[in-house]
Amino acid sequence: MSGRLTVVGLGPGDARFLTPEAREALEQAEALYGYGPYLDRVPSREGQKCNPSGNRVEGTRAQDALAHAASGAHVAMVSGGDPGVFAMAAAVCGEIEEGPEAWRALDVRILPGITAMLAVAARAGAPLGHDFCAISLSDNLKPWDLIERRLDAAAAGGFVIAFYNPISKARPWQLGQAFARLQRHLAAETPVIFGRAVGRDDESIAVTTLDKAAGTPADMATLIIVGSPETRVIARDGRAPLVYTPRMASPVNA
């Protein structure tokens, strides 16, 4: 029997954001692996074994799932958002590269999901309408000075920037430092979007400016989008503003 490991993106939260392809893979899997709160989002079926694990054991989780698949089982690894964006697909690939030859022979499939920056952008308007990039503010896996250099480059290059992993109890200062760094390059009135738990019952969207962003509440369920010099805000009476970045850059900033 040939083993299979499918890495599945669950999207931002609610089941309606799950793709039909991902839903089918979850239903067909004999066993599910993933971070506990993500596995809680997946309806289990009779005979399907769930294997939850903690937030900082990605390598061990990937190894366990690969070993199970190598025994001939059909296994699904769940990941929030898109598994290829700061998530489990890279961890799985890394373990395959370093692991036994049997893992390279597996049928490995990676199924996309709606990543947080796309979900937040859609709620706010079209802030990713022109060139953009994504940066994780977590310095658990890379040094902070590297993050600062990337912030400088992205802001100086005119990119809209999406912040993943912006702040946590263990990392309380990095977000404020990031905003201060960006103020060296961007105007105070640059739009900033805070999207928390998009796709879930406690979803919230807040639009502010770079000079006020440090005072806006955020946590690990928050995705932050910092606009470029081109990004605009359309105020609307009685409705949330629309934030967008025109597809054509102005000649001055091109």
Describe it for me?
With 254 residues, this protein is of the alpha/beta class. Helices cover 28% and strands 26% of the residues. The protein contains 8 helices and 13 strands. The strands form 3 sheets. It has a 5-stranded parallel beta sheet, with helices on both faces. A 5-stranded mixed beta sheet has the order 7-8-11-9-10, sandwiched between helices. Strands 6-13-12 form a 3-stranded mixed beta sheet. Strand 9 (191-196) and strand 10 (204-209) form a beta hairpin. The radius of gyration is 20 Å and the shape is elongated. The mean pLDDT is 94.
**How would you spell out the order of helices and strands?**
EHEHEHEHHEHEEHEHEEEEE
SS-based class: alpha/beta
Average of the residue pLDDT scores: 94
* Rg, Cα atoms, Å: 20 Å
The helix content is: 25-40%
Termini, distance in Å? 56 Å
| Strand arrangement in the largest pleated sheet | 3-2-4-1-5
Strand content: 25-35%
Described by its quaternary structure, the protein is single chain
Largest beta-sheet details: 5 strands, parallel
The number of helices is 8
Quick rundown:
With 254 residues, the chain is α/β, with parallel strands linked by helices. It has helices spanning 20-28, 36-39, 58-70, 88-98, 101-104, 116-124, 144-156, 174-182, and strands spanning 4-9, 31-35, 49-53, 74-79, 107-111, 125-126, 132-136, 160-164, 191-196, 204-209, 222-226, 232-236, 239-244. It is 28% helix and 26% strand.
